[in-house]
Amino acid sequence: MLIPLSAITSGFSRLVRKVTSHEGGGVAVIFGVVTPVLIGFVGLSVDVVFWYMEQNKLQSATDQAAMSAAYVLQHSQSASDLTATTNTHLSKLFPNDFASLNIEVNSPPLSSVYAGNTNAVEVITQKPQPLNFLKIFNLQNISVAGRAVSLYKSTSDFCILGLSKSEDKAVEFTGSTSVSLGCGIASNSDSSSSVYVSGNASVATTSVSASGDLLQGGSSDISADIPVETHAPTVLDPYGPEGRNLQVPSLPTGCTAQKLKVQADTTLAPGRYCGGIKFLNGTATLSPGVYIMDGGDFNSAGGASITGNGVTVVLTGNGTKYAGIDIAGG
């Protein structure tokens, strides 16, 4: 409980008047002994109130810095990036006292519930405090401290991901397409049609995350296990330098096929398909391996069926002739 300072000082004044009016020498000695103690208690109450205010301010700033660091952690695992973000945030909140702060940034955290969690970042701060009254007692090294742990959660594993930062309809479902996924859809485009669903398309997925917005039209339907998230943070490129750092395989010298058309049940082998593959009818079974579409689309018409396990499709080309993926309704 905090006692009002006015009550302490008024009581102290009454005691001083009472003691100083007494003629006994013993009382004067007691007064000389008690006075520094009373002054100490008054000084302690003033200093402690100030320290509590400073500790609350530091904790609030530490909380905000940890949240900023967790946002950066979604895109970079670099310790220097996390430290730089934390320092920048705290320097804005403590422009005059930043040099006196002791700051520690740990990812993963070193202790508590999220110790070892690579999706969490821990920020620990200390700030020395001045001694206004208690310095007469030769006290020193008084500091307040703050600690915060911030965690980002990946809502889903994304298996359809548009990496463009600005493309309209970076992820698009149209026509009578029916898609059922046991994973999520994400688009890093900030377009108002970052994810586009129209016509009679039906999409069932675990989650949808778009840095821009979702545009839905026609009688299309999209359902997700959790609410669709728009204007969301971009998703880390799982294939780029910050992810698996996958390299495009070297192109085979020759073409496995030129503008191949599949019109009946068949089994295909990995290779370089110059001009792409067009699946028109029947069931095409893709043997495990890498299928390179060089300058032509991986195109499936409405009557075709494609199946395979352990299959990777690489879209490449040169000039203005780059491969794409086009899967029609049905």
Structure description:
The chain is α/β, with parallel strands linked by helices and 330 residues long. It contains 3 helices and 23 strands. The protein has helices at residues 5-20, 25-73, 79-93; strands spanning 102-106, 120-128, 143-151, 158-162, 171-173, 178-180, 184-187, 195-197, 202-205, 208-210, 214-216, 221-224, 229-230, 257-262, 266-268, 271-279, 282-286, 289-294, 298-300, 304-308, 311-318, 321-322, 325-327. The radius of gyration is 34 Å and the shape is elongated. Mean pLDDT is 83; it is low at 1-9.
Summarize the structure.
With 330 residues, the protein is α/β, with parallel strands linked by helices.
Chart the SSEs and their pairings.
Layout: H1 5-20, H2 25-73, H3 79-93, E1 102-106, E2 120-128, E3 143-151, E4 158-162, E5 171-173, E6 178-180, E7 184-187, E8 195-197, E9 202-205, E10 208-210, E11 214-216, E12 221-224, E13 229-230, E14 257-262, E15 266-268, E16 271-279, E17 282-286, E18 289-294, E19 298-300, E20 304-308, E21 311-318, E22 321-322, E23 325-327
Parallel strand pairs: 4-7, 5-8, 6-9, 7-10, 8-11, 9-12, 10-13, 14-16, 15-17, 16-18, 16-19, 17-20, 18-21, 19-23
Antiparallel strand pairs: 1-2, 2-3, 21-22
Helix pairs in contact: 1-2, 2-3
